[in-house]
Amino acid sequence: MGMNGLFEALDGVAGYRDLLLALSGSDGAPTVEASPPPGARPFLIAALWRRLGVPVLMVTPRAEDARRLHDQLLAYLGDDAPVHLLPEPEVLPFERLVADAGASGQRLRALWALAEASRGGPAPLMVASVAALLRKTLAVDTFRTACQTLAVGQRVSLDALLSHLARLGYRPDEGVEVPGTFSRRGGIVDIFSPSSTLPFRLELWGDAIDSIRRFEPASQRSVERVERAAIVPAREVLPALADREEVSRRIGALHLGSCLQEARERIQEELTLLFSDSAGEELPFYSGLFNHSSLLEHLPPGSVAVLERPADVHAEAEAMASQEDELRASKEGRGDLPRNFPSPQLRWSELEAALAGRPQLHLGGWASDGPESLSLRPAPSYYGRVDAFVAAARAATGQRKRLVAVSRHARRLHELLEEAGVPAVLTQSLDAL
């Protein structure tokens, strides 16, 4: 389902046209403010993204805000739209819990979408909570150099390909069911790249790729033949591609003497394995040794940043910084964490500096009736008042107004309108008004 046709209604609104002009970047990197009703914000963001034709990053104060906004954007734009949710880390700084592979795959898919946009591909719409945005990630050059596109007819060394997959963090597995895994059976190689929602099956004839198919992991049935397969990193921490001298310098700066003996010996042992094939679940704990970049560095030039309630975004970032400082002090005080251990997340001041050079839209916390509302108003509620809705529909159509009703019970509403003599069209999607 999609409601793209609704965006036509905004084209005649002067405030909306002014907003488009301001965010187009013609006057440098402006910061524009608007205060539409909260319920209208997904509609406005989707409309701006479609008209601007550039990547848009939407930043929310909390994770639940980001998830809800992501779902609302898909409702307007359709499930096939390149709308990416950047998940927040599920592990607190300096904790050793295993990170969710699915969340990591979503983040890597978002980085791939931005890399494609920088090469002229589709402009994605990104949604991230401030917690997701603050988590450090792979450097732009490291990520893009690691990405590889395999094509039908291309000649490859099978040993080199498998070695490259290992360097990118892929795990061998008999059944390729989750992103970041691969398997080989003779001249057939299955790869589940985070760039795709389904794994790829490569069939080789000698050293040439004879075919590439996407398949369902559960049934092993092919879904479609494709000409190319994008292979992207399987993890956000890639020791094999890191600058070893820089990492060694950071390791040398650790004050291991401040740790208790048991913690010190464990860390020393793990540090010796970081660059080996034995490194695994402990890698996220050491991500600060390898990653120093933010998602903002992956945004192509001309991208637009939208901040939902900027004051709340800033306050949430400061709260996260305080929480990290408390965790660090507690673990250092117990002797569980060496002093000078690098943090896995950025500070708000670092993101603020990166945002300063980009067009920004700040959505205020309170709705307004002034020009900054862009003539958007909350819809009246008809919950439990079907008769009132039918009467309002009759009045609106009698005044030649356009009325669009979106409901889980669309078929029943259509029947009621027809019974009342109100002309209505029942549709599963709205491509044009």
Any descriptors?
six-stranded mixed beta sheet, 14 helices, alpha/beta, 15% strand, single chain, 433 residues, globular
Secondary-structure map with pairings?
Elements: H1 14-23, E1 31-34, H2 41-52, E2 56-60, H3 63-77, E3 83-86, H4 101-118, E4 125-129, H5 130-134, H6 140-146, E5 148-151, H7 158-167, E6 171-172, E7 181-185, E8 188-192, E9 200-205, E10 208-215, E11 222-226, E12 228-231, H8 244-252, H9 261-273, H10 287-290, E13 304-308, H11 310-334, H12 348-355, E14 360-363, H13 386-398, H14 410-419
Parallel strand pairs: 1-14, 2-4, 2-13, 3-4, 6-7, 13-14
Antiparallel strand pairs: 5-12, 7-8, 8-9, 9-10, 10-11
Structure, explained:
With 433 residues, this protein is an alpha/beta fold. Helices cover 37% and strands 15% of the residues. It has helices at 14-23, 41-52, 63-77, 101-118, 130-134, 140-146, 158-167, 244-252, 261-273, 287-290, 310-334, 348-355, 386-398, 410-419; strands at residues 31-34, 56-60, 83-86, 125-129, 148-151, 171-172, 181-185, 188-192, 200-205, 208-215, 222-226, 228-231, 304-308, 360-363. The strands form three sheets. The chain has a six-stranded parallel sheet, with helices on both faces. It has a six-stranded mixed sheet with strand order 6-7-8-9-10-11, with no helix packed on it. Strand 3, helix 4 (101-118) and strand 4 form a beta-alpha-beta unit. The longest helix is centred in the C-terminal third of the chain and has 25 residues, at 310-334. The model has no long low-confidence stretch (mean pLDDT 91).
